Hints:
The chain has helices spanning 52-69, 83-96, 101-120, 131-138, 148-167, 196-205, 214-230, 234-238, 271-279, 296-313, 322-334, 339-345, 351-358, 363-376, and strands spanning 8-12, 31-38, 41-49, 245-248, 251-257, 264-269. The protein is mainly α. It folds into 2 domains: 74-184, DNA polymerase, domain 1 (Orthogonal Bundle); 196-369, Intergrase catalytic core (hpI Integrase, Chain A, Orthogonal Bundle). The strands form 2 sheets. The chain has a 3-stranded antiparallel β-sheet. The protein has a 3-stranded antiparallel β-sheet with strand order 4-5-6, with helices on one face. Helix 7 runs parallel beside helix 11 and helix 12 crosses helix 13. It is globular. It starts with 7 loop residues before the first strand and ends in a 9-residue tail after the last helix. Residues 74-78 have low confidence and may be disordered. Zinc ion (ZN) binds at residues 11, 13-14, 17, 19-20, 28, 30.
Amino acid sequence: MSSIPTIEIFVRHAANCKYRDDERSKRCRCRKHLRWTWEGKQYRQSAKTRSWDGAERAKRERELQYEAAQLGRPVADNKPVTVERAIQVFLADKIGAKTGGSTVSKYKLTLSRLQDFFSQQNIYFLSEIKLAHLSMWRENWRSYYDSSFSLRNNQSRIRHFFRYCHNAGFIPDNPAAKLSAIRIKEDDYDVVPFTDKEYRAILDAIPKCDDMASASRDRVRVLIQLQRWSGLSLVDAVCLERREVVKDGNHYRLVTSRRKSGTRINNVIPGWLGKELLLVKGENRQYFFWSGQSTRKSATSVYDKLYRRVFKKAHIIGGGSHRFRHLFAVSLLEAGVDLRVVSKALGQSNLAVTERYYAKWSRKQQVLLARELTKTWGKSLPQGS
Ligand SMILES: [Zn+2]
């Protein structure tokens, strides 16, 4: 790896900084930059930070990119790879492959836990890690994750990491390949919608949130009603565009698609809600709730925080925006609407998924089942047995 450049951190001081004569000073909060030479060419780049530690991280990240670029070459013979080094290379590969930021940070977290756990066991080299160690480590995961879904996702990240290391020639085989599958328990599919009473209490609490700007209160109220009556997820509701709301007789129609999966949604909402929606004053003419300036993720988290303040005011424990979506689905199912129709309204592309979550709420299915069961009674068996 000889052609990896040496990257240097330097400070661009403000004109009045008392350390301005020392471009390597760690004493001030002036802007940090990186510079290096590679293949005869000089590079300079902002480290996008004012802290020296932050600059160290930016430097490391840049170095990792160069290292990843060298990965086409086999690892030097008989040179054992440390867990730490394998993680660095793997993450550099993920970053190089333009993997989404949130995925990369999940990998970072999972792998830093792996490194911590194994360094406590005095295991530093990747080739020392065997299936039994991984099984042992897996015992601890319950302390980080509360659902089987998260456990399973964590395991798939671990598998992926070891598969990569195996393919990269760091280890002769993949110890994670034989980890037993994590089963999803029935409880993990528990859907808890807000009750009508809770929903009422939430709406009533909004005007009492006096620490919230009145414009925010207005937007939150309409957003909550939108979720409850359309079943949109928070991100889909926040990023709904004005042109996606179309007048349809006495009602309005939402013609949009899910940001998560791209599945089409075409739901009717009550006329009064459509009118309220059109009255929402947004910062952006294209959207109701989103400024269009931030990322979707940060816009969603802004509303999520506002929701939490409302839930607190309403004394709701375990509140969450998805429970409005559940309320939408469950109230349809309880009214006897077919599960397939509800699945479509939720924009779920896989009916089996809807079924797993919502089957027990489906009144129609229960009635059908009861009818089928009672029909069989007395047919095959003598009475009273
Ligand atoms: Zn300075």
